[in-house]
Each structure stands twice: as structure tokens, then as C-alpha cells.
Amino acid sequence: MISHISLGANNLEQARSFYGRLISLLGGKEIYASGRVVFWEFLNSSTKLALTVPFNNESANFGDGTMVALKAENKKEVDRILWLLAWVL
Q1: Strand 29-33 vs strand 37-41: parallel, antiparallel, or unpaired?
Q2: pLDDT tens per residue, range 17-59
Q3: What is the DSSP string of 2-38?
Q4: Alpha-carbon torsion 79, 83, 85, 89, what sign?
Q5: What is the pTM of this model?
Q6: What is the largest CA-CA distance in the chain?
Q7: How many CB atoms lie within 10 A of CB 62?
Q8: Are the C-beta atoms of 49 and 40 separated by less than 8 Å?
């Protein structure tokens, strides 16, 4: 089982704003935040998503082969989310 997925962020507040909007569209909610990490949970799932400032205080970088997939119920929901995110970005 997966407890949580962590993504590094160089600008935690900017990442929190973006992912917070996206996750709320998928029915998730923020459950914890500090100056170094933010956690969200999802309906009908025990898996959490975390954004964090890197523990080693170096810049967050992409990982080779890293992937996170956020599940939507159907294509109609994906289209609705893309349309709503177009107004945010």
C-alpha cells in the first residue's frame, strides 16, 4: 500500500496554490501544512499527496522516471478540470 507520494518544491506556496486548486477539483482536501510540507487527502483513498521543501535544503529537481497520476472518474471530468485550470493558469 502507498502511504503518500511526495513531490519536492522550490517554491512551496506557489506549488501549494496550484496543486490545492487541482486537488480540490478532484475532491481532495488539504489536511496539514507547515513551513516545509503540505499534505492532501482524497475521497475513498488512504493515499496522501505531499509537497515538501527538500530535506537536504538543495533545489528540488525532477527524478528520472518519476510520475504521479491523479485519477479522474471519466473523460468528461478531465475536460471540466482542464477548462477550469485554463482560467487559473
Answers
A1: antiparallel
A2: 999 999 999 999 999 999 999 999 998 888 899 998 887 888 8
A3: --EEEEE-SSHHHHHHHHHHHHHHTT-EEEEE-SSEE
A4: positive
A5: 0.73
A6: 41
A7: 8
A8: yes
